[in-house]
Specification:
alpha+beta; 181 residues; 2 helices; ten-stranded antiparallel β-sheet
Length: 181
């Protein structure tokens, strides 16, 4: 009889966990990336580090796609002792953007006036990339490529429903273990 009772409780716990975790089976995930700027020339050579995150619910993985501030894009970049965010971009809130081709990350397009540009072409702010350029003035003709940008995935941010389901299952498991003693 005890075995049937434990089996019933375990079945209930699994059902609750699946319901909590799977209630929105197609949920958006917050995706994190770290990036490293490797400036090899210009007046400020060296490595500079940053990160960005976005919510991927609108990505289809087909063709060219961009995500921006309206998709939760946030940036933190430490350059020469100053912290820059997405709001530092010259065209905020239309830019910065992060670009993809067929679901593969191309990179950021991020322009901070009189400082730097991250992306492949400052003339096309809707396409991210892997070049790092110095900007000497507000004139985009003064853009000088001085390095490259590399990207690596950070740890995914767990969704609240996933954490909730895990907590519920853990509590029920502890209760079962406690009753057993």
């Amino acid at each position: 009889m005890k075995l049937a009772s434990y089996f019933g409780i375990a079945t209930f716990a699994v059902a609750i966990s699946i319901t909590a975790v799977g209630s929105k089976s197609v949920q958006a995930a917050v995706v994190n990336y770290d990036f490293t700027v490797n400036a090899t020339s210009g007046s400020n050579p060296g490595q500079h580090f940053g990160s960005f995150q976005y919510e991927d619910s609108t990505l289809t993985g087909i063709g060219d796609e961009n995500l921006g501030v309206s998709n939760g894009l946030s940036i933190l970049f430490d350059y020469l002792g100053t912290q820059y965010t997405e709001a530092s971009d010259f065209d905020y809130p239309l830019s910065p953007v992060v670009s993809f081709t067929n679901g593969n990350l191309l990179g950021l397009s991020y322009l901070v006036e009189d400082q730097f540009f991250i992306g492949d072409n400052p003339g096309n702010p809707n396409r991210g990339g892997t070049k790092f350029s110095s900007i000497l003035s507000a004139d985009l003709l003064s853009v000088i490529e001085v390095g490259t940008v590399s990207y690596s995935t950070g740890q995914p941010v767990p969704e609240p429903m996933t954490l909730g389901g895990t907590v519920i299952a853990g509590i029920i498991g502890l209760c079962l273990k406690r009753k057993k003693k």
